[in-house]
Design brief:
286 residues; alpha+beta; Aminoglycoside 3'-phosphotransferase, Chain: A, domain 2; 2 domains; two-stranded antiparallel ribbon; 8 helices; 9 strands; 12% strand
Amino acid sequence: MDVEPIEAAAQGEEVPLAGGDVTEGVVRVGDTVRRPRGPWSSSVASYLHHLNRVGFPESPRYLGIDERGRDILQFIPGDVPSQPVVEPWAAATTVLVGIADLLRRLHEASASFVPPADARWFGDDVHVDMPADLRPEPPSDIISHFDVTPQNVVFRDGKPIGLIDFDLTRPGSRLGDVINTAMWWVPLFPEPDRDPALAMCNAPTRLAMFVDAYGLTDSLRATFCDVAIAGATRSWHRMRANAKQRGGGWARMWAEGVGDRILRRRVWMIEQRATIEDALRAGLEV
């Protein structure tokens, strides 16, 4: 799908936007955001147009391409809780429930999306060798954001009103997106690796609240831990491949120890499996 360049939607001073891990050169110009284009940009634009058409107001409007070849998106004003660490207010249970509801509505809005025939997504251009005995991923049943982290949600008055940075949009499973989102907001990794605001959170209790608010089915809860543990292994291999093949921010994160943190998360999930599964079942019984 081709997108023709358009003139800048708003002129003015370029203000760098911090917070992203791997995309450099993101700036605000007036009420717009300008981002470098990637091979997946046209497919993401198609997805954002769909979300706008079906009434998902939390996604930014895609406005075209500026005179410098950058994507133009609507700027969503508000508070982002990770600047650079998670702020204490983001640990509130109302925020957790709001994120689960946001993800559910995103999946509902995404269900009717038909990607263009020539769609390309993030990761299509990176070769990843996975262990032969690794549990298969759940079948893809959705195209979604897959990066609903505290860096990528905009809030007003403690409520999530915007979802930003759709670069990692791609096909995958609803369960995989639920697990990835819960990982950051519950959170699902050992206390030493958590942001201070979330370090003492009761993960099992918060996970039960999260999956209840999302409406996760009992069949998906039954496979939650298996998929999450295998997903950590898969994430380690993907991060390593991105670091080697893309370089830039991916290489920096790998050098800073993101691979080790992923492995610690996997070990923690294995150790906490019984407690997590009890919490998932308890949620169904409420």
